[in-house]
Design brief:
six-stranded mixed sheet; 27 strands; 36% helix; 26% strand
Length: 556
């Protein structure tokens, strides 16, 4: 049996899945101040329908890291940059507290400027006087040679008691210095809170006698073991939109082009599925307006949900409780749709009463006010989808579809996800002149998506035969080649594949590593004068996001 739990901003959903069927599902209000309790309430109700010993895997999707960053509640963190030569320091607008140091390596990992010990002494004094206990260190091309980052980290730990240091070479092996620096900064900011959460989850499962694999949903729609997430909490950002994307795909399981619209209580998440495959953000996830090295779907969240409050000034971008028809004290978007479309949700008399109060203050008929709200919300979602299409059109997979099909992209449908989707999505689909897809399990599709996705893993190998060196990511492993002169692309691919198998085994992913594919194969000759003096190889192999092998769809 599989369990998927999605901790959303308004509700926490859970699904117990077994052999193609949802055994039971749960929906509980989310306590923003105590996400752990919300998660465990759902888990306990799911366990009432199963034996803990029969649970094969639990996958969690949580808004913890997203909320920490969005609300500014992450721990105060400073960023130490070693940018080397090139852009001026004021070009790096990543963090408020930023300290610059000399010392640099080139793109091949050769040291071209040593660290300045006096500068480091000044940094240490600044850390002690500032009271900051979280430091992120990023050096340009540290993915080729991390010696400077490690030396700076060593000095800080030795001389600044109680200070945590994250270095970018441990977080990502990819090129693009600003993105690696931003990812490291956000990691240092959230890692303590995330590890406290992980500790609490592991302790709670132990108390309940559950001994099974526990994974966390990542922004790219794959999962990672809870233990592995401790070092890279930023991988879990945007896991909510990832859950809705995979949930929409799990409910449909076909090759149509779809916009996934996940209508939550507070926000609505948008994503795109092309020919049955979710669309990825080729430049990585955007966190707090910063591009990062976190692999992610191309998603967007807008501040509009089913519980968005309605006042005399219109629809507001916040939630104060459930819709009036479900016992809330304020009228919401759901109440307007409830009356305008005759949905008969909850206590319709409360929708009538609360919407009537707003209508009276505006000297309108209640029916006219509801019609205006429905029209406004539908147009707002319509405009948001169209704005996203302008971004989606720049993604490689979108362009490939048009090349293969020799025509402009055609949308087939809108997939509604979330409890409010049946009320709001059909009107949007009508405006877009496509069909709407609402499944009986749409309200808990996020949890379903989390339960049946498989782990993902990406390995990137860089080889420089002239310098006789290689580096592997993840893990920042480096070393020397045994036979650099005879090293070929086939050798690089085999080396990357073997490392993928090794890391997969360490993460308990042996059953998935066999289903891997190469996404990067590049070879460059190094020329000096008229002679070739070496080669550079870049090879990438991955276990891509997808569903576990036994998942064939959902039986109703």
């Amino acid at each position: 049996m599989l369990i998927g739990i999605d901790v959303g901003g308004t509700f926490t959903d859970g699904v117990l899945f077994n052999r193609g069927e949802i055994v039971t599902s749960v929906k509980k209000p989310t306590d923003e101040e105590n996400l752990k309790n919300s998660l465990l309430q759902v888990l306990d109700e799911l366990l009432d329908h199963s034996d803990p010993a029969e649970i094969n895997r639990i996958v969690l999707s949580t808004t913890l890291v997203t909320n920490l960053l969005a609300t500014g509640r992450g721990e105060k963190t400073a960023l130490v940059l070693l940018p080397g030569y090139g852009l001026p320091h004021d070009s790096y607008d990543i963090a408020g507290e930023t300290y610059f140091l000399k010392g640099s390596v080139d793109f091949r990992g050769r040291e071209i400027e040593r660290l300045d010990n006096q500068e480091i002494d000044g940094l240490l004094e600044w850390i002690k006087s500032s009271g900051i206990s979280r430091i992120a260190v990023a050096s340009k091309f540290s993915n080729r040679n991390d010696v400077h980052e490690k030396l700076v980290k060593k000095r800080i730990i030795e001389e600044c008691e109680g200070v945590y240091v994250a270095i970018s070479s441990d977080i990502s092996g990819k090129l693009n210095f600003p993105r690696r620096a931003a990812t490291t900064y956000f990691t240092a900011m959230t890692i303590s809170a995330w590890n406290r959460f992980a500790d609490e989850i592991e302790e709670a499962l132990k108390i309940r006698g559950i001994e099974t694999d526990v994974h966390v949903l990542k922004a790219d729609g794959g999962t990672m073991p809870l233990q592995a997430s401790r070092a890279k909490p930023c991988e879990t950002v945007l896991s909510g939109p990832a859950a809705s994307t995979m949930g929409g795909s799990a409910l449909t399981r076909d090759a149509l082009n779809s916009v996934v619209v996940d209508v939550g209580g507070t926000t609505t998440d948008l994503s795109l599925i092309i020919a049955g495959e979710p669309l990825y953000a080729s430049r990585g996830a955007i966190i707090e307006n910063q591009l990062t090295h976190v692999n992610s779907f191309a998603v967007r969240s807008i501040a509009l949900g089913g519980d968005s409050v309605i006042t005399t000034e219109g629809v507001q971008p916040y939630r104060v409780g459930p819709a009036a028809c479900f016992g809330g004290e304020k009228p919401t978007v759901i109440d307007a749709f409830n009356l305008h479309l005759n949905l008969n949700l909850g206590d319709t008399s409360r929708s009538e009463s609360k919407m009537g109060e707003i209508a009276a203050q505006q000297q309108l008929d209640t029916a006219d006010l509801c019609a205006q709200i429905v029209d406004y919300v539908s147009h707002r979602l319509f405009e948001a989808v169209n704005e996203m299409f302008l971004q989606w059109e720049n993604e490689p997979a979108y362009k490939v579809w048009e090349v293969i099909n020799q025509r402009r992209f055609k949308l087939d449908r809108v997939i509604g996800i979330g409890a409010a989707a049946p009320a709001m999505v059909p009107a949007l689909a009508e405006m877009m002149n496509v069909e709407s897809f609402i499944h009986p399990y749409s309200p808990v599709a996020n949890a379903l998506g989390a339960s049946v996705v498989r782990p993902t893993l990406t390995v990137v190998l860089h080889v420089d035969t002239q310098s006789n060196k290689y580096t592997l990511d993840p893990g920042g492993k480096s070393g020397e080649l045994e036979k650099p002169r005879s090293f070929q692309l086939t050798d690089a691919k085999e080396m990357a594949r073997q490392y993928l198998l090794t890391v997969g085994q360490e993460l308990g992913m042996e059953e998935y590593t066999a289903d891997s594919s190469f996404f990067l194969e590049e070879q460059f000759n190094m020329i000096r004068g008229w002679d070739r003096v070496g080669k550079l190889f870049e090879v990438g192999i991955q276990v891509a996001p997808g569903f576990i092998e036994e998942f064939k769809g959902v039986k109703i």
